[in-house]
């Protein structure tokens, strides 16, 4: 049934590529650094690891950075499933992170966090979520893919207990 514990835990386990930047750390505003990240939502934690593609260098050398990003995204899609795992109970954290080659770059504690659609003044990008942790760290999370960002929004709202808004 939809309310069974298994259904809930599947809903709240999710992984794939998102664009992420911190904007505030421990209450202090920091410079944006949009990074294509491999994100894993597991229990009440969001684990984020850069895929090696950073949009922050685009202003200097847009073509090489763009090619590198596409290559990186392609490699990730080949090596790692880019969709939510409906059977996530059987997938270990190690395989979600693509073997033992890499460790999570940072973990966001979602307990007491708030999630909402970011206001226009936070970013010029579309589909931007604002995640604020209880420790005063603020992250922007973005994807150009409308369906994909909505899935993440729903999953993050379910995890944090925030209301789902249009
Ligand atoms: O909110 P901001 O500061 O206008 O964000 C933009 C800048 O961080 C910019 O970097 P530089 O100021 O280092 O050139 C980024 O390249 C942009 O992506 C940031 O804005 P968006 O609207 O994309 O979040």
Describe the fold and architecture.
The structure is a single chain. With 166 residues, the chain is an alpha+beta fold. It is 29% helix and 30% strand. Strand 3 and strand 4 form a beta hairpin. The N terminus is likely disordered. This is Rho GTPase-activating 12 isoform X1.
Write the layout of secondary structure elements.
Layout: H1 5-11, E1 14-25, E2 28-29, E3 35-42, E4 45-54, H2 58-79, H3 93-96, E5 106-109, E6 114-117, E7 128-132, E8 138-142, H4 146-160
Antiparallel strand pairs: 1-2, 1-3, 1-8, 3-4, 4-5, 6-7, 7-8
Bound molecules: (1S,3S,4S)-1,3,4-triphospho-MYO-inositol.
(1S,3S,4S)-1,3,4-triphospho-MYO-inositol is lined by residues 32, 34, 59, 123-125.
Give the bound compounds: (1S,3S,4S)-1,3,4-triphospho-MYO-inositol
Topology as a string of helices (H) and strands (E): HEEEEHHEEEEH
Global geometry:
globular
Average pLDDT works out at 75
Helix fraction, binned, reads 25-40%
Query: Quaternary state, please?
Result: single chain
Rg over alpha carbons: 16 Å
Classification by helices and strands: alpha+beta
Organism: Pelobates cultripes
Domain PH: 22-161
Protein name: Rho GTPase-activating 12 isoform X1
